[in-house]
Amino acid sequence: MLTIKKKDKVIVLAGKDKGKQGEVLKVYPDKNRVVVTKINFVKRHTRSTQTEPGGIREKEAPVSIAKVMLVCPKCSQPGRPKFDVLSDGKKIRVCRRCGEMIA
Ligand SMILES: [Zn+2]
Fold it and tell me: pTM of the full predicted structure?
């Protein structure tokens, strides 16, 4: 089970964006990759087409889930959450630092 979901706040642990934080835009569970706002921006040269002019476009590229860590929205500390199961069987993530549930 992935510890990171869409709209989570994460911090980058390695690479050129190390230490930066962003919001998860997209998760690719089968590839263990996530797309995070403003992280791993890559420049892409695009060719002119009939509808769009060519040029350089910047876009976020997916990063490995191992390179990011969830940031707790309550205490703002990065860390791997633990999982808990509620009485109705629903799985929740809990911050190891402040003990708060992470939605
Ligand atoms: Zn916390």
Answer: 0.83
